[in-house]
Amino acid sequence: MAKNDDNLIKKTCKELGLTYRELGERIGYSEATLNKNASTGEISKSIEVAINLYLETIQLKKQLKQFQLLKEIIRDISK
Asked: Which GO terms label this protein's molecular function in UniProt (predicted)?
């Protein structure tokens, strides 16, 4: 387990407006596990990877929506 100075769990929950339970449901960990890791600051590599993948997925979904909107705009303009 790596010491996380920024506390990725707390930071992620705050930025996304999620509880530990909600974040846990999204990344496959229990609320108790995330609470323990957040309170001690000792975040396992697997939790760190899961959170980073979740954040990347959110970002990619936003980009996909933007590309879909652009596609619709281009289609409408070309009619």
From this structure: DNA binding
User: Tell me: the pLDDT tens digits for 36-73?
Assistant: 999 998 999 999 999 999 999 999 999 999 999 999 99
Q: Which residues contact 61 (CB under 8 A, 6 or more apart)?
A: none
Tell me the domain boundaries of the chain: 2-77
Question: 10 Å Cβ neighbour count for 16?
Answer: 13
Q: From CA 44, how far away is CA 19, in angstroms rounded?
A: 19
Write the CA distances from 32 to 4, 37, 73, integer angstroms: 18, 9, 46
